[in-house]
Write a structure and sequence with these properties.
It is a single chain. By secondary structure, the protein is mostly helical. It is elongated.
């Protein structure tokens, strides 16, 4: 019933081949090992969010890290005009019911954003971002660490003896 994909057709397999994916050739063993220390180390490292997003795609939940990273960028916006524009994009992409990348947040958090979206502040997505961070930290992060995805990346770097960045 299931047909085995050839390694050349499997996008997941390509992650682990340096010549086909620049990130796996640049990430260091040291960085990859630090990801297992805490979720915060994963999402604040140089390549962690990108690799984690690749993993989340396999779980069909990459909208979580996308939203979290977009909120990090949103908080740095100083222009009110740009903040309003970005807030609307975040709302239509992730928050509104039936959004293309709707995130799983509770009704009070969603309603608070809906109330504040007309005049968005720097912090209007903080509660939703906190909820998504907790979802990822509790649910998908432990699975990521146990996954073949992470284990294969770690072992391939250990086998290469790569402790520093390769360019």
């Amino acid at each position: 019933m299931f047909r085995r994909m050839s390694p050349s057709a499997c996008w997941l397999c390509k992650v682990f081949r340096a010549e086909e994916n620049g990130i796996s050739s640049k990430v260091s063993l040291e960085e990859v090992l630090q990801w297992s220390q805490s979720f915060e180390k994963l999402v604040t490292s140089k390549y962690g969010p990108v690799i984690y997003k690749m993993y989340l795609k396999t779980e069909h939940s990459d909208e979580n890290i996308e939203f979290w990273l977009a909120c990090e960028a949103y908080k740095k916006i100083t222009s009110q005009r740009k903040r309003i524009s970005m807030a609307r994009k975040l709302f239509t992409s992730y928050i509104q019911p039936q959004a293309p990348k709707e995130i799983n947040i509770d009704s009070p958090a969603r309603k608070a954003i809906i109330r504040n979206i007309q005049e968005p502040t720097q912090s209007c997505f903080e509660e939703a971002q906190r909820i998504i961070y907790m979802h990822m930290e509790r649910d998908s992060y432990p699975r990521f660490l146990d996954s073949k995805f992470y284990q294969n990346l770690k072992h391939s770097l250990q086998n290469n003896g790569s402790n520093s960045m390769v360019n």
